[in-house]
């Protein structure tokens, strides 16, 4: 697909310093969460303030997110997916997203809603695969990527540290990261991060780094067969 914007992955190589100096994530016993509780992330650790785990998102996850949102985009409606990590990462300072969760949802041109049955189905799927949701991605009709009042009350979590990402124009074309709206929940209220803060919170990691400029062939003189004299 010729519109695939490879510039979306620049931050992964330009900002390695974001891996340092991140505070720990609190949370409690990951095995004790069930149902809707598994949809929450970013609980405070006593005395440490809001949790701020770095999200590392492989480019394959970004692409599969875009693919999963195409049915709603083609219908001219908003859509929503969630990103999940293995439970063993639940108390880590770095979350590497492994899975895209597409819930049962009701969609419309100006809103989306994860149905109660969809929440129950997600909880079962997360437990079955040993996953925990860490972020949400949903789309907006135009270029505006702030949170609406509907978004504030219908996001997957209202816990401190939860992450909500908004893509413009229904995600018809996969947007570069500079066009994403990256929001973090703090004190029960959603705050949009500026581009610099978003880059410290979220990094897109390339799936393949191919450094070949051209294919190299062995010449006959490079190939040694049998014993070498003097060995």
Write the layout of secondary structure elements.
Layout lengths: L9 H5 L39 E5 H10 L1 H5 L5 E7 L7 E3 L2 E3 L3 E4 L2 E4 L1 H14 L1 E9 L9 H6 L8 E5 L13 E6 L2 E4 L2 H7 E4 L26
Parallel strand pairs: 1-3, 1-11, 7-8
Antiparallel strand pairs: 2-4, 2-7, 5-6, 8-9, 9-10
Give the radius of gyration. 21 Å
Strand percentage? 15-25%
- End-to-end CA span: 54 Å
Number of strands: 11
**Count of individual domains:** 1
Class from secondary-structure proportions? alpha/beta
Q: Report the major sheet.
A: 6 strands, mixed
Supply the number of helical segments.
Answer: 6
**SSE topology string:** HEHHEEEEEHEHEEEHE
Low-confidence stretches: 1-51
User: What is the residue-averaged pLDDT?
Assistant: 76
Quote the CATH topology.
Answer: Cytidine Deaminase, domain 2
The appropriate CATH architecture is 3-Layer(aba) Sandwich
Describe the protein.
- This protein has 231 residues and is of the alpha/beta class.
- It has a single domain (22-207), classed as Cytidine Deaminase, domain 2 (3-Layer(aba) Sandwich), CATH 3.40.140.10.
- It has six helices and eleven strands.
- It has helices at residues 10-14, 59-68, 70-74, 116-129, 149-154, 195-201, and strands spanning 54-58, 80-86, 94-96, 99-101, 105-108, 111-114, 131-139, 163-167, 181-186, 189-192, 202-205.
- The strands form three sheets. A six-stranded mixed β-sheet has the order 4-2-7-8-9-10. A three-stranded parallel β-sheet has the order 3-1-11. A two-stranded antiparallel sheet has the order 5-6.
- Strand 7, helix 5 and strand 8 form a beta-alpha-beta unit.
- The chain is globular.
- It starts with 9 loop residues before the first helix and ends in a 26-residue tail after the last strand.
- The model is unreliable at 1-51 (pLDDT under 50).
């Amino acid at each position: 697909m010729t519109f695939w914007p490879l510039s979306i992955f620049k931050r992964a190589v330009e900002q390695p310093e974001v891996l340092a100096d991140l505070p720990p994530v609190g949370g409690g016993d990951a095995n004790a969460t069930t149902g809707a509780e598994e949809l929450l992330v970013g609980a405070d650790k006593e005395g440490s303030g809001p949790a701020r785990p770095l999200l590392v998102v492989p480019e394959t996850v970004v692409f599969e997110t875009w693919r999963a949102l195409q049915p709603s985009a083609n219908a001219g409606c908003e859509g929503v997916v969630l990103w999940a990590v293995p439970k063993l990462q639940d108390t880590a300072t770095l979350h590497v997203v492994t899975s895209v969760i597409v819930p049962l949802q009701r969609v419309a041109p100006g809103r989306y809603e994860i149905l109660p049955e969809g929440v129950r189905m997600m909880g079962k799927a997360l437990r079955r695969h040993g996953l925990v949701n860490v972020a949400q991605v949903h789309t907006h009709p135009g270029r505006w990527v702030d949170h609406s009042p509907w978004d504030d009350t219908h996001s997957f979590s209202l816990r401190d540290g939860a992450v909500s990402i908004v893509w413009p124009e229904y995600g018809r074309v996969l947007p570069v990261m500079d066009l994403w709206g990256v929001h973090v929940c703090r004190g029960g209220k959603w705050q949009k991060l500026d581009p610099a803060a978003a880059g410290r919170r979220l990094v897109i990691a390339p799936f393949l780094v191919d450094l070949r400029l051209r294919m190299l062939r062995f010449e006959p003189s490079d190939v040694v067969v049998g014993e070498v004299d003097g060995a």
